[in-house]
Amino acid sequence: YWSGSQSSMAKLLLGVFVVYMLHTAWLLYGFLNTKPCDGSTGEYCITSYLTARPRLQLSVFTCLMPDNSQLHLAVKIDPFDPHSTFERQVNISLPEQTRANGTLYAVVYVHKAGVSPLDDGREVHYAAQLTTYITPTHTHTEGQRDMQKRPSPRSENPVSHWRPHLSITMMSEDFTFNKAGLPSDVRRYMRVSQDGRQMIYLPLLLVNELSFRVRDLLEISSSTVQLPLTVSYEGISLRGFRFWVHLQDVVYSLRQFGFTEENIDEIKETLVGSNLYLLVLTALITALQLICEFLALKNDFSSWRKKKSMAGMSRKSVLWRSLSTLLIFLHLLEETSLLVLLPVGLGACVEVFSTIDLNRQKTVEYDTQASRYLSYLVYPLCISGAIFSLAYLRQKSYYSWLVNSLVTGELTSIICLSETSSSV
């Protein structure tokens, strides 16, 4: 009964996971293929403000609070072409409040050329922080070691740092939306205006937070009067706009789950440096990998639970394999993500618990002989590898060196061990 219950539970979990992945695939299909509105069929359409080709201006202001008060012009692009790409480098004067460990914001406006954005009823704007609070670091060099960043001894409290990049994106595609099927991610950024009997939506503006990196931050001190700011712009399609919106939502969720900024930076570089279709393919492959890992663990549990005798299995081979799996898990513990670490950890648990019942053996003689032949090859390789890696001990912790050395030895011998144990 217990075995049948476990099998039913495993099938149920597998079914739920498959349904979830099919639902995700359907959402991805809808994300990649947004259907435009067809007014001839009676659909209620919302057209783009950019269709009329208005003369626009892009203005970037700085302010202490993003409330349209005390704005200081930093960048002005007139005329502004939504389909263009540009980059400007300017120096921003810091207010006294910002230099006193305060904040500073950038407000990006897209509005009619020659008209103040505050007087334009069809302007769109987006506010983003130019400063962020982190614990200060300083760089020092010890001997021939590489430069390392460590917390500054003068303060452990977060202080204001400058973000030297402001990346602006806007949907430049003249896409016509169906009001009834408006995507929720687009609706958050959309402002609709009435033009007679026709509904138009104003430009979809976004500041790309994924371009921000912790390593690029500059500490703001009381003596800092000006700091450089690189303002860049790129016009993107609807698909690209939705892609950036979802990625920024992912980064926000990671922060809520307690990920550090350094870990988030690594994820940003992976996401930003990859093609959209490549990311979708990676997600599908990852889903298939998770299914395969789940089925493999399920089979391992079932195999060891149903095994009544260990006769015919090499005791030393099982112990060696358990040790190898455990060492690989310790090696991955400090260098990889939970997506890889969790299956390896569960596999290590299965291997370790499988060594409990190893008393009933009928192959001790062959096991001993095979292990002796294997040691002639493995031991010299392990010792030479440990001596070779000892040269790098000064550049890493003793624990990391020990684990890496053991893993190297285990990986060297695992192929020979598998061949020997199969012959036993």
TrEMBL record:
TM annotation in the entry: 12-32, 276-297, 373-393
Biased composition (Basic and acidic residues): 139-149
Superkingdom of this protein's organism: Eukaryota
Cellular component terms per the entry's GO annotation: endomembrane system; membrane
Region entry Disordered, spans: 139-161
Bilayer topology term: Multi-pass membrane protein
Alphabetically ordered keywords of this record: Membrane, Transmembrane, Transmembrane helix
Biological role stated in the UniProt entry: Scramblase that mediates the translocation of glucosaminylphosphatidylinositol (alpha-D-GlcN-(1-6)-(1,2-diacyl-sn-glycero-3-phospho)-1D-myo-inositol, GlcN-PI) across the endoplasmic reticulum (ER) membrane, from the cytosolic leaflet to the luminal leaflet of the ER membrane, where it participates in the biosynthesis of glycosylphosphatidylinositol (GPI). GPI is a lipid glycoconjugate involved in post-translational modification of proteins.
UniProt-listed PANTHER family: CLEFT LIP AND PALATE ASSOCIATED TRANSMEMBRANE PROTEIN-RELATED, LIPID SCRAMBLASE CLPTM1L
Name of the molecule in the record: Lipid scramblase CLPTM1L
Lineage: Eukaryota, Metazoa, Chordata, Craniata, Vertebrata
